[in-house]
From TrEMBL:
Transmembrane segments: 12-37, 160-179
EC number per UniProt: 2.7.13.3
Record-annotated Histidine kinase domain positions: 246-462
Species in which this protein is naturally found: Epilithonimonas ginsengisoli
MF term (GO), any: kinase activity
Reaction equations catalysed: ATP + protein L-histidine = ADP + protein N-phospho-L-histidine
Localization in the cell: Membrane
Protein name, UniProt field: histidine kinase
Superkingdom classification of source: Bacteria
Class of the enzyme per the UniProt entry, highest EC level: transferase
Keywords: Kinase, Membrane, Phosphoprotein, Transferase, Transmembrane, Transmembrane helix, Two-component regulatory system
Residue span, HAMP domain: 185-238
InterPro entries: HAMP_dom, HATPase_C_sf, HATPase_dom, His_kinase_dom, HisK_dim/P_dom, HisK_dim/P_sf, Sig_transdc_His_kin-like_C, TCS_sensor_his_kinase
Amino acid sequence: MLNLSFKDRISLYNLFGVAVLTLLIFSAIYITVAFTVNYDINEELTREVNVHREKSAKVNGKITLVHKEEWQQSEHNTMDMNPVFIQIFNENGKSIDKSPNLEQKDLILHPEATEEKFIDSQLDSVPIRQIQIKLEEDGQSFGHTVIAMSIKPQYRVLNSLQYILVITYILFLLILFFLTRYIAGRSISPALVIMQTTKNITAHNLKDRITLPANRDELYILSDNINELLNRIENAVLREQQFTTDASHELRTPLAIIQTTLELLVRKPRETEEYVLKIKSCIEEVNRINGMVSQLLMLARFENFDTNFQLLPIAINQLIDRAITRSKEKINTKSIKINNSNMKEYFVLSHESMLSIIFDNIISNAVKYSNNNGEINIQLENKGDWIYCTLSDHGIGILSDDLDKIYDQFYRSEANDHRHIKGSGLGLSIVKKISLLLGIQIDVQSNKGKGTDIHLKIPRFKM
């Protein structure tokens, strides 16, 4: 198809459909009228046949009209008002008599024609319809009578109707095309606004939004969905920009420490013990960078994680025990007591490796922010379709104003007051993302100086 605009295609499709439908209607009108006109002509001829069937007779061997006054009727004398033409032929096809209105003209006899068959012909350029009947006496044929009527007025009506229908059809389609094109243009104007607005939206300009149409139709839904998509894209871009800024800042700090330490070491010779101390400090910062990079990769992995993973029954007690074992060195270093007396085995429906990451992070945080000789309590409880897990520590706690920020990437509450506690601020961000993937509900409650309670609501595996 030609490279037509959307509104032109709508107009043409609509025009084609209406053209076919209108053609069928106009054809039906013409056929109905033509059938009615021809039926009336045939009926009139049939009546004439019935009238004249017995008016011709054979007298003394000659064919004659029984009532000669028949020719005096106006329909047989004139060509102007509904003329009826009659001509009588003998058995040899020779004309014996005819109506006065035929004058010097003759009707055509068709000997081979079927009896009482309607035949269209012309009489001196005037369209006529004729019928012929056999003349019989005592079962013997002695001639034919041909009766004809002018059909010029009827044909004039049919030709005029055909002309009017054709002209009306063409004008109607032309008007319909331009009217449909105008209406289509008005109808798609909101779509043109959408196109223009989306054209102006770039990576550097994500603030613009599509003005919602007044009517709550399909275009309204489309505009609203595009606006929602733009909101998600803008939020994703902002998060990426913030992530890049925060990651750069967090990685720059340990790198600056390593650089400063190494610069101090090369300025002048130092004692072996001092070299060892400074190198250990650099190794700690390198380990911190490695840990941060690992967490960043993990965060990026779960950001685009395929949600079509399989959930399996998992013994949550064993998962918690393994997470405690992995933090055993830090636990022993700070002499922290772990109260995990869950003798009953609980099964959850989850993903083992992702659920392990959650417990590794929250137990590691609990140990990190607990005081020396502190306690950490872990409780499990079965409630209907859920397993409730509560992990409580008696550490430094979190300010109430900071609780709504703890899931933000790189955020650490009162980081300047706790410089001795190493961390990246990514742990709870990872926990939150995995919780959303696994359908786990997480709630954190904390009091400054008293400790923190983390509540997990995990789907239970039904035996």
